[in-house]
Amino acid sequence: MAAARATLPHPHLPAPSWRTQLKPVPRRVVAASAAPSPALTASLRLGDVIEAQQFDRQALNEIFEVAREMEAVERGSHGSRSRVLEGYLMATLFYEPSTRTRLSFEAAMRRLGGEVLTTENAREFSSAAKGETLEDTIRTVEGYSDIIVLRHFESGAARRAAVTANIPVINAGDGPGQHPTQALLDVYTIKREIGRLDGIKLGLVGDLANGRTVRSLAYLIAKYQNIKIYFVSPDVVKMKDDIKEYLTSQGVEWEESSDLLEVASKCDVIYQTRIQKERFGERIDHYEAARGKYIVDRKVLGVLPKHAVIMHPLPRLDEITVDVDSDPRAAYFRQAKNGLYIRMALLKLLLVGR
Amino acid sequence: MAAARATLPHPHLPAPSWRTQLKPVPRRVVAASAAPSPALTASLRLGDVIEAQQFDRQALNEIFEVAREMEAVERGSHGSRSRVLEGYLMATLFYEPSTRTRLSFEAAMRRLGGEVLTTENAREFSSAAKGETLEDTIRTVEGYSDIIVLRHFESGAARRAAVTANIPVINAGDGPGQHPTQALLDVYTIKREIGRLDGIKLGLVGDLANGRTVRSLAYLIAKYQNIKIYFVSPDVVKMKDDIKEYLTSQGVEWEESSDLLEVASKCDVIYQTRIQKERFGERIDHYEAARGKYIVDRKVLGVLPKHAVIMHPLPRLDEITVDVDSDPRAAYFRQAKNGLYIRMALLKLLLVGR
Amino acid sequence: MAAARATLPHPHLPAPSWRTQLKPVPRRVVAASAAPSPALTASLRLGDVIEAQQFDRQALNEIFEVAREMEAVERGSHGSRSRVLEGYLMATLFYEPSTRTRLSFEAAMRRLGGEVLTTENAREFSSAAKGETLEDTIRTVEGYSDIIVLRHFESGAARRAAVTANIPVINAGDGPGQHPTQALLDVYTIKREIGRLDGIKLGLVGDLANGRTVRSLAYLIAKYQNIKIYFVSPDVVKMKDDIKEYLTSQGVEWEESSDLLEVASKCDVIYQTRIQKERFGERIDHYEAARGKYIVDRKVLGVLPKHAVIMHPLPRLDEITVDVDSDPRAAYFRQAKNGLYIRMALLKLLLVGR
């Protein structure tokens, strides 16, 4: 939502309480910021979901409460359509394909009675292909819809869209940048599965250098008390120093380990990730060396505490073996489903408030 | 629907009577079966539409009765939306494009008041492209929808999806395998056009070797009494022995003929098919020799009985000349429309029962 | 709509008054016409939107009145869904991508409570790719929907579709041919922005040779009184003689000018267009020479009358500088929004009448 709307409330947008924590800033100031950074948190405008950092504990709690309510709405919607977002129109503007994320948002909108305009491949959008700026596209699409869900290949695109639009924008992933709804559903899953967020012991496994999900998760979980994080990854894809330093500055304990079994025996959550072949370019040898190193299999289940869970942002290849799926501690498909509830909650909060 | 649900009935799934004819089997047993075969009929789980063989005469009759009711629902839906499937969400997961089939399913869902999540090109689905298994994709998509319509390029894919999913799966064509809703609409069209199914004389024309529609149709029509089938095809694409042997075993009379006019003069139904160029590979000469051999034109209409009809699964190229279209016996566009009614009937039966 | 329906009124289609101005003609006669031409106006069948020429002043006025009503409907639809087109199903059959136009039509349908079947890329439509004719595709799709919105790469395709279909067809652009809804929204925008259509002074700028929008606009505006048109374009893309002759024959004053500032100082509307690189083929030098010649920038705003507006069909590259956007006279995003209202009006008029 553009700044103008932040001071002049939209009639259809009773503000959820967490909005009031964020200060509106003049449009040009935000537009001038080249790259998103934690320092910008306070300057994020109201009514958009752009980056994980914009949420504090209170905002997270409110979103999670609404997500929990959404579980009941979704169960009730089979055979009796919810009318919460009836008459609202969401545009999914995807500049790169991500069917899982797109379907999840579109299901969320429909489960609440809303309607959807779909663009699966906006990059070949005739206008974009002809050289139209993202800003011009947004100004057109906002005339046809009530909320825009944007997936883009460029870091910072969601912020540019939000600065431009007079309707809410949700970032559904912008290149190597942010994917805040994934981060929210990850934290929500920990809360739903373990029952709390303070005092969690979390093992992050796999590609910690390139995976934006583990980076965002580390960032968000740091808002809670007595967190301990173990990093388990092949040498070529170790967690980067910026996150380590951030965790330290927030008083979060962390350590690196090369012993997945030992880590698994001590954790509440093992968060496994895919080694992303596409990040290794020509170095297929590095990829092959990295991918088989830390596999979650029945041996890991053997040492994992009974109350603990295995998470994964999906898609998975063979970094979790299929025989793990039937164990009740395999939480990754429940985690995917939580994406639906989180997105329902955000759509409700942004369009009609609590 | 997975086996678990077969014993624990889904609250939204009052079982249509034809379900009770099928025995649920343990999941692993079904999963272990490498290729679908008639012998597996009895082991098909409840609540999915996977292959033409799963339906007996009673099931077919029930589906056709509901399809007939759907004609009235569809006519009434212009200007007064049906609410039969209100609140239900169908995911069309298409790993290869088939716009005719997709639009037909999506129209069916909407004509009944339901909602749709569309994937036109799931093969480039970012997850599938990254190596995610079909099973993992299904486990995610079932969290977002109430029923999955799957089109896939691999034979057996629909069965694998059905074994995995806890919601109903409809096979919308899996490679050279099955396309059961096409088979159902073909048989329904014969019943609607001729008024009966017993005692039908049926000419199957064109590519009988590669066309899965004629194979499925031969299979299904064999369930009726006093059927006579004529095969009329170029030598390179003759009907294969498995179907001929099956027909013989079921007491269905059949013969091969190279005289389309003579066959047309004796039939109730001439079912023409396209010679599929893509099946000939490098042998364009074979394709060219085959394609012009048996054309349905005004000469065929001249000998065709007054009550008989011409059918075609579409798309057609020039194997039926355009001047045939205006003859009332040209049933192929009515046949395409019947696909809507059959799919409405199946969606209703699977989601809310009769 | 096919001729048959024109004499036998469709129960869902109370005829808007402008239909009665058009005479139905036998199907074959229309089908035989190779290329659309003004002379065919009177032979256009009822209930389709095929070309700008089919509308006279009275028809335009009625469409614009309904479009104005649609502004209120659209504003009211957030949170309380309109039911005007409830139960109606629109198929968007796009043989070339045009996301702006597609989203605009789909938003229009949904804002009125209708449903949509989408085909983003019908050219790879398996049937079209296999050689199915447009006519056969239309006969199938009309069985699944209540109205077809067709975008095609071939001039005349929309007319062929309309001749075939028994349901209304709207031309959403057919190659170098027509794009009548764009023409309607352009004229509607002039009326909304300036307050009248008679006595307008209009500057058409940019690519006047290849731009079908300026050609259609010139054609439509000629129906009004005391119009003056200025053509401002690089030599290689000058307005063609057919339009000039037509304007002269209609008593419309026009002149060519190479001085954009002088023209801007005298006009009510400056209609800027993009120089279309794709039309220049190998002659990149011609393109480069043409594209920078006439830019709408703050200098133009400096001489433009206070009441005047800048229009553009979008997408724009740099032929209007971004610093123009914040001027209240920059009407191009309002113009894009008007496309929604015009399409809502047409859908309502074609499906349920006034």
Features of the shown structure:
homotrimer, 354 residues, alpha/beta, Rossmann fold, five-stranded parallel beta sheet, globular, aspartate carbamoyltransferase activity (chains A, B, C), Asp_carbamoyltransf (chains A, B, C), amino acid binding (chains A, B, C)
Instruction: Give, in spatial order, the strands making up the sheet with the most strands of chain A.
Output: 7-6-5-8-9
Radius of gyration of chain A: 20 Å
**Helix share, percent of chain A:** 25-40%
Assembly context of the chains = homotrimer
Termini of chain A, distance in Å?
18 Å
CATH second-level architecture of the largest domain in chain A: 3-Layer(aba) Sandwich
Number of distinct helices of chain A: 14
Subunit structure (chains A, B, C): Homotrimer.
Protein name (chains A, B, C): aspartate carbamoyltransferase
Pfam family, one (chains A, B, C): OTCace
EC number (chains A, B, C): 2.1.3.2
